[in-house]
Every structure is written in C-alpha cells, then in structure tokens.
Amino acid sequence: MTRCTISVCCLLFLLTLLLGASTALAQNADEPLRLILNADAPGPTINRHIYGHFAEHLGRDIYGGFWVKDDDGAWQLNQPVIEALRRINPPNVRWPGGCFADYYHWRDGIGPRDERPTIVNTLWGGVTEDNSFGTHEYMQLVEALGTEPFVVGNVGSGTVEEMATWWEYMNHPGKSPMADLRRANGQDEPWGVRFWGVGNESWGCGGNMTPAYYSDVYKRFATFLHGYGDVRPFRIATGPDATSNNDLPEWTEGVMREAGRMIDGLDLHYYTVVGGWGGRTLATEFAEAEWIAAFEQARRVDDHIRSTSAIMDRYDPQKRVWLIVGEWGMWHLPEPGSERGFLYQQNALRDALVASISLDIFNQHADRVRMANIAQTINVLQAMILTERDGDGFVLTPTYHVFEMYKVHQDAELLPLTLEAGEYTYVDKTIPALSASASTKDGRVHLSLTNMDPNQSHTVQASLRGGSFSSVSGRILTAETMTAHNTFEQPDAVAPTSFHGARLKGEQLTIMLPPKSMVVLELE
Ligand code: AHR
User: How many Å apart are CA 387 and CA 322, to the nearest integer?
Assistant: First the structure.
C-alpha cells in the first residue's frame, strides 16, 4: 500500500516535471510557434456585416456625435467624423438602440423638426431629446456613410401596428398611406431597408419576457412585416444574454423551437466586463491582472458561439439563420467627470487587442456568425471615435485602427489555419499568447496576428501551403504601455505603422511579433 502510494507520488512528480518543462518550452520566446496556412482551401465567406456598428440614442453617440449643431444652432451631420468612419468601410449601423429601441416611437421623429415632440431618454441620463434625429436623418447618415441600415423596432412599449407602419413608411414603393406620408416629408423613393430587429434584449430592458412569451410576441410582430417588391424583411429576433450567461441555452432553445422558422437572424449580446459589474476599472487605469482577465473573458465569446450554434444546428442544420453578435465590446467604468448614464469611456491598446481577437473568433465562425455590431460607434463604450464635448475636435481610438486594418477580411474567403498559439501566464491565469485569422480576396492573402503577451515577443514560423507568394508587407498596432491611448492632445499615441518583422522565403514566412501587438500582413 505504502509502495503503491509512493510510486503514484513519483509518477505525479515526474508528470509535474514534464508538464513544467513543456510549459517552459512553450513560453520560450526564442522557440518559434508554428502556423500552417492552407491558401488553396478557402472556407466560407467572412460576411462584411461581421464588421458592423451600433449607434444608439445614448450619451453623445447620436446627439453630439453623429448629429451636431452648426454655429447658428442648426442641426447637421458631423461630416469630418463621417469621413473618418467611411475609411473603415462600415457595412451596417444598428439604430436606434439598444434598450432605447423599445422606448422609441418613430412617428415622433418625422416631419418638420421644430414641430416634433420631445422625448425624455429615461434610460440613459434622463436627458430630453428634441427628436431632431429621426428616420430621415438616420437614412441621410446611412447614405453619407455608404453603409446599410439596420433598424430595431419597438416591441417592449410599442404596438404591432406601429412597427408595421414604420416598415411600410420606409419600404413601400407604390401608393400607400405610409408611402404617401414619406413622400410628403420629402422622400419619394423607398429606402429598401432589409435588416429589421424585432425588439432588443427582450429578456431584459426590452420587456423582461420569458423565451416562450417572447416567441409568441415575436411571431405576432413578424407576421405583419410584409415584403414589398424586391425588399423582404430580414427579421432579427432577440438572442441570448451571453454577458450574464442568464438562461442562455433555454433562451436559444425556446426561441428557435417556437419561432425559428420565422427568424432570419438571432441577436446574441456579449460584453467583456473585467471584474464584473461591481469590480470594473477605468479603461486606462489597470494592471497586468486586468490585462490578462480582459482577454480571458473576451475569448469566452467563442464558447457562447459554439453552444448557441449547436442548439441552432438542431433546428436549422442548413445554417439559414444568421447568428448575430449584435452588441459586443468592453464595458469599463465611465470616465470621471462624464455625465451619469452616458457610458463614456476611454479606449486603450487593451481594447484594440480585445477587438482583434474577438474579430478573429467571429471570422473563424463565419459559417454561422454572419453579423456583429461593436458597441458603440461614437463616445459610448468601446467606441471608434471620441469627440470633444465643447468643440469640433475628435480622436480615432485604438479600436478604430483595428477595424481599419481588419477591413481586408470583409467579404473575403476564410482560409483555414492551424496555429500553435503558445501560452501567456500571469499569476494563476494562463491563456494562449496568440490569436490569428486569414482570408483571401482578389488574389491576395491577408493574415492577422495578435500577441496578447505584454512581456514577450513571439516568433511565428508559418508554412504557406497551396499558394505561391513573392512579397509580404504589413502594418502593426502596438505601444509602449498596456494603457496607451489616444487623447485630444496626443491623438496618435496608438496608431498603425509599417511592420518590418516578416520575412518570406519560398513557402516559409517568419514573423516576429512584439509584445502586446497586432499585425496584419498582405501576401501577394
Ligand atoms: O450598449 C448599451 C446597452 O447595452 C444597450 O442599450 C443594451 O441593449 C445593452 O444592455
């Protein structure tokens, strides 16, 4: 008995030594990590809508972000901001919420601006809005951005008739009461909106419904959204709450079973809340513990996508229904001095790398995840752009640069890759050091790589199978510190620069990834 215990102990000891040795090997920055890229075996198309955006009537996203007053006090679109956003090819912009969608009554936002009633934004700061940004202004914005509309209708406090008439107002091509009203308000042609959300977070701020109750309500609302001409509604149902992991399988199961045949997209929401709702810190004031925790938590969206997809596969094996990650991003403490309820936060290198690894995950699931919307575009949560509160200035955030660098993956074919991701350990947490995705379009291959390890560089030895390339070029996003961010005084503290750490020799590509960096390479 004693001998047996001793030999088990010895075995365990030996195993520990072995495991320790392999961990040490994996963490050795000099040891190249292997990547195999199959350039001749393209997978599904990475839908450009994975790079989607979200603009809610919240804080200074619309009013003070997209929609600003000129010197005479007249409202107008914020042209310089729109120009900057055009450079990241926004494929769609989800509007008007968010939770606000289930409070919004569209008829209050049409007609002469000075005759529109006001609305108190009860949820977000209690501010009174003048409804000057309504349906026509949103469509003006959509056109200026060169993007596609994604409207979320009011289920929580609205009626079926209200949603059906909004749909008719925007899309009816012929003579109809709503089309005539639209024409009277200056828009002859229908806008041809197809993405249509039937409520938002109906398990929470959108009405606190059960999956069974929501499914019935969903079917009732969806029944009255009719196709007109070529425009068919792409009906998007509330998906599970992956942030809190509340009833996640039950929601998906219930809604897919009861209403799946009338659903075109299921809208899952997942926020990275480091420390939980009670333990959040500022976007720019954190240590390595919060750095690694952010990646550990952000990576969990992969599990949520897998488990939700597995349920969807049972009801929809053909993958007709899109899994949409309709809200995602980092949710920090608001910046000191910002208005209560406005969710205004800074954006550091950590946010950028959380964005790149999240986009890698969405890319890898391109067969089911066909749309995602980072929350939100301007001045709210993980924004692309921060604008001055009292002035015209604005800065591009590190996350903006990720979207600009990753736009090469939009509508490209996903390339399968095998990555030895290494390990990054801090105290009791270990996560993979690297994340990657690759795609091909127009004869070019793009490979994006993120090194989450803030302390060590990693060399990647990539075998490029099934392709012949003669050149490699790339850009890198990194900074000296984990908390580096852009301010109105230093707008380019975190910005992409040329990358000179890749060498191509035949089928072999060697890449030296500095600590805490993201690189996008182009192979021709
Ligand atoms: O993006 C902020 C809020 O987060 C949205 O209004 C809501 O849908 C989610 O809970």
Answer: 33
DSSP, collapsed to helix, strand or coil, labels residue 445 as strand
| Pick from 172, 202, 197, 199: nearest CA to 187 | 172
**How is residue 373 written in tokens?**
């919307």
What pLDDT digit, counting tens, does each position of 477-494 carry? 999 999 999 999 999 999
Residues with active-site annotation:
201, 327
Q: What is the DSSP letter of 339?
A: P
CA distance readout (Å), 17 to 13, 14, 22, 182, 255: 6, 5, 9, 74, 49
Does residue 98 line the site of ligand 1, with CB under 6 A? yes
CA nearest to 196, candidates 149, 240, 136? 149
Question: Cα of 89 to ligand 1 centre, how many Å?
Answer: 23
pLDDT digits (tens, 9 = 90+) for 165-190: 999 999 999 999 999 999 999 999 99
Relative to beta strand 148-153, strand 195-198 is parallel
DSSP states along 20-74? HHHHHHHH-TTSPEEEEEETT---SB--GGGGBEE--SSTTSTBTTTEEE-TTS-
Instruction: Confirm or reject: Cβ of 375 under 6 Å from ligand 1.
Output: yes
d(CA 491, CA 396): 7
Does this model's pTM top 0.85? My answer is yes
Q: Which atom of ligand 1 is nearest to the CA of 381?
A: 1
Choose one of 121, 205, 373 to mutate for the ligand 1 pocket test, by most ligand atoms within 8 angstroms of C-beta: 205
